[in-house]
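Revision sheet: structure tokens.
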Amino acid sequence: MAASLLRLHFHDCFVLGCDASVLLDDTQNLVGEKTAGPNQNSLRGFDVIDSIKSELELTCPQTVSCADTLAIAARDSVLLSGGPTWEVEMGRKDSRTASLNGANNNIPGPNSTLTILINKFNNVGLSSKDMVALSGAHTIGKARCATFTGRLSGSNNAGEPPITNTEFIQSLQQLCTGGSSTLATLDLTTPATFDNNYYSNILSGQGLLPSDQALLTDNADIALLVEAYAMDPFAFFDDFTKAMVNMGRLGMAGEDSGEVRRNCRFVNQ
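Predicted:
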């Protein structure tokens, strides 16, 4: 669940900013983001946010936004998984709308090349360094076989990350004979612990998603960051917390924009 809440926060921030638009259900008057390609049958943790928000509404009605609730839940999930903590900047408002198109086009996909990753992050105002540090969130969680088909091919087609660990690829191919919905851990070494093993895995050719292994594709500066984070967990933690604060600032609304929803799934009536 820790990985799910962290991912939910990411997928929210990359669309309209960190405004809880990802939490909205479809209604007659609104098409939400939950049925977007990167989200459908993939995002989890909505019920956890519902439970937290219900408790907040009992204690201090319409005070803490769903967007702030999600940002704090993501932070605490990292901490409880053994990772670092940081000061979450508060004051986000909840969006009154959502963008299915934005969710389909803005969120970096699991088969993204390095160029696409850099561009997607730059498009929302995040640097390449932010991108490498935030990719380290894949040190926890799982992914369906359908999301890493580019690794299963065992080829070196243009745009795909190079195959440097054939034994690892063969183990994935065997695992995925169970079907496209079969789950694989993003970090084989310490799958439930937030640490820097994600980067060590990449260096040994064991990045699960094509977008993970792509960090070692044709960019010396990014490759050096991967190596630095693999060697020094404190450097990774420090840069990850800074990147999370930077991401958390995306699209933060002013006092006259947005609202504090009573129910995270619906705009206020």
